[in-house]
Design brief:
single chain; alpha/beta; six-stranded parallel beta sheet; three-stranded antiparallel beta sheet; 18 helices; disordered N terminus
Length: 454
């Protein structure tokens, strides 16, 4: 989504606040229910676990996220809509909290803790990313909650798990990716440059994906046995098993993979694959031809463009068109195969340098090759294929009188569709609704707003 207004359509209304009575997010407008519809998740809002809550909410679960009275710190994370710093305009908070209902509770008070217990008692999931030991100190941990709700599935997301010698260590998304290994494999052929951390909170998101997958497995187990369980997610471990072959190369062969520009990290360097096109943009040419049919496809492409006479490796390339397919292991052992593979790579680069990046990208894809254009994030979301799949979605923000474009569904369910039904909650927006569902009377609600107990 856009941080400022410069990328917004001129046809959209200006950001004029609506009257207070109209500032609630739109409710579910109907249609088929999501795959997790009918399930309730109580979430203690946290930077580490917010994405797990979003994944479940976007699949239809009723996620109630609990914030402190002054709001979760992520509400103050930049960038902000319209570049106006405001806890209600953080794009970070917006993205990670779609479809959730939001309430505020002071867990430093017995009243606040009691409301959490009452929320969790009938819930299906309890999701938290608190430091190990904090919930036990508040009498809100698994042993405290499970007796009242034996079907509860509690998911704890911490940097190094809740037990072990590193359990009390702090971590950030950066240190998770560095210590877990993914950062080592990301960067450039020039190793005088440091590794590159993947952007977009990938360390937290990886842990959250494992959390949701584990929760769904626990749900299947509960359907068979009637019993819930406590899931302890180690975000460092989640990152470490997301290093492609990096971790296993070391564990099995004691070999260390090396980062490569635009290519998979490997023990031995592979051929470069990023190429400049004639419009000054880069593409990734992926795997070059290795079968006669693939060689013929590239040959016909060059012929149609009138480029055959300009290609210097034409003789060996045409020989490969009539030969046998070859595998990667043959490239290192057979000189002729190596020459064919080099000609294949040269042909791909030769084509890329003589057309625009988008022409190369789409032309290669149409011929069955894994060619890709190197997009900026805003270009990726506007790609015709991405748009045709309905990935960009408009989400209404009544409090500012307009909508914003969000990243949409990463997958499609035929009968239980993913959907963003409402934007992230304003601070305490759903207090009255949720407290009424709990049956709290006016005195109990007033107690929640009283001076915190010390």
């Amino acid at each position: 989504m856009s941080a400022g207004d410069s990328t917004a359509s001129n046809s959209r209304p200006a950001e004029t606040p609506l009257p207070a009575a109209e500032q609630r997010a739109p409710a579910d407008t109907g249609g088929p229910a999501g795959p997790l519809a009918g399930l309730r998740v109580i979430e203690l809002n946290s930077e580490r676990s917010a994405f797990a809550g979003k994944l479940m909410a976007d699949m239809g679960a009723d996620v109630i996220t609990v914030e402190p009275p002054d709001g979760d710190p992520t509400r103050r994370f930049a960038p902000f809509a319209g570049d106006v710093p405001d806890p209600e305009r953080s794009l970070w908070f917006w993205h990670y909290n779609t479809n959730k209902r939001g309430i505020t509770l002071d867990l430093g008070t017995e009243h606040g803790r009691d409301v959490v217990r009452r929320l969790v008692a009938p819930a299906d999931f309890f999701l938290e990313g608190e430091p190990p030991g904090r919930l036990a100190a508040l009498d809100l941990d698994w042993p405290d909650l499970a007796p009242a709700n034996p079907r509860l599935i509690m998911v704890s997301i911490t940097p190094f798990g809740r037990s072990g010698p590193r359990a009390d260590e702090q971590a950030t998304d950066l240190t998770l990716l560095a210590g877990g290994g993914p950062a080592w494999s990301c960067g450039y052929d020039d190793h005088s440059l440091p590794p590159v951390r993947g952007g977009g909170n990938q360390g937290y998101q990886t842990g959250c994906h494992f959390a949701v997958m584990s929760a769904l497995v626990a749900l299947v187990h509960r359907q068979r046995t009637g019993r819930g369980q406590h899931i302890d997610v180690n975000m460092h471990a989640a990152s470490n098993v997301t290093t492609e072959a990096g971790s296993y190369h070391w564990l099995v062969a004691r070999e260390t993979v090396q980062r490569q520009t635009g290519r998979h990290a490997a023990v031995s360097p592979s051929m470069t694959s990023q190429v400049w096109c004639k419009d000054g943009r880069q593409v990734n040419s992926g795997l070059p031809p290795r079968t006669p049919a693939q060689f013929r496809a590239i040959h016909d492409w060059m012929k149609n463009l009138g480029l055959l006479d300009q290609f210097p490796d034409l003789a060996i390339f045409e020989l490969a068109m009539e030969g046998e397919p070859f595998s990667f292991w043959q490239i290192a052992q057979d000189e002729l195969v190596r020459a064919k593979f080099t000609a294949a790579r040269n042909a791909v680069n030769f084509l890329a340098e003589r057309m625009t990046a988008y022409e190369f990208f789409t032309g290669g894809q149409q011929r069955g090759f894994q060619f890709s254009i190197i997009y900026a994030p805003e270009e990726a979301i506007e790609d015709p294929h991405v748009s045709a799949r309905g990935f960009p979605v408009e989400v209404a923000h009544p409090e500012v009188g307009r909508s914003y474009r969000y990243p949409g569904a990463p997958y499609r369910f035929a009968r239980t569709p993913w959907a963003i039904r409402r934007r992230a909650p304003l601070l305490g927006e759903d207090n009255a609704e949720v407290f009424a569902e709990l049956g709290l009377d006016d005195a109990e609600i007033a107690a929640l707003d009283a001076e915190p107990e010390r």
